[in-house]
Amino acid sequence: MAANSLDRAKQAVRTQVWDALTTADAVYDASVYGRIPHFEGAERAAARLAALPAWRRASFVKAVPDKAQLPVRARALEEGKTVYMAVPKLATLKPFYLLDPAALTVSPFEAASPGTAAAIAPTVEVDDLRPLDLIILGSVAVNPNGARIGKGAGYSDIEFALLTEAGLVTPETVVITTVHPLQVIESPIPTTEHDVGVEPDRDP
Fold first, then answer.
1. Other CB atoms within 10 Å distance of the CB of residue 17
2. DSSP states of 49-104 as a string?
């Protein structure tokens, strides 16, 4: 598929999901279009994630700064996991906040907010990170085979490439996302080899 056709196909999937979430009034955003959806039920999704063996094994977690994944970041800190959170748009020379649960001066929920993290957490370079047990992505749409797309800015793909090049993504690293059920579609999602996927859904 040509690049322009692929982009149009991806955008059609995004619009389908944004339309469905808007119709169902399933997001907190004033407008979900162009965003990683801040979906209702994010806390339940975080609890479901926390029940997975991969979560229980994880000590070092890289997470996106999106609002929908705030409960995931807070829960990780509450459970003593080190969280690396991307600086929005990777806008600094040291593009990750280091959230060390042993060094927090505020509650885990406060610390997991990008605004608070910017005020209290040191920023670190890629070379300062430890190998990652778990990578949490934000998504607009996913399917049961693990294909996903974000909002189209490409930051997750850039981060993943940086982390992989640095040797921080290992065969044991699990990549996962939390979403509303309306964001899970059964049809194929158009992707390229550079698009980061997630662990396939193996629920019976």
1. 22
2. HHTSHHHHH-SEEEE---GGGHHHHHHHHHTT-EEEEEPGGG-SSS-EEEE-GGG-
Only one residue has tokens 């980061």, namely: 196
Q: Which residue has the tokens 């040509």?
A: 2
CA distance 115 to 29: 18
Q: Which two tokens stand for residue 129?
A: 């990170």
Could you report the per-residue pLDDT of 149-164, keeping only the tens digit for each? 999 867 778 888 889 9
* Residue whose entry in the numeric block shows the structure tokens 């955008």: 11
Its pTM stands at 0.91
Q: What is the pLDDT of residues 35-78, one digit of tens each?
A: 999 999 999 999 999 999 999 999 999 999 999 999 999 999 99
DSSP 193: T
Residue of 122, 47, 139, 40 whose CA lies nearest to 84: 122
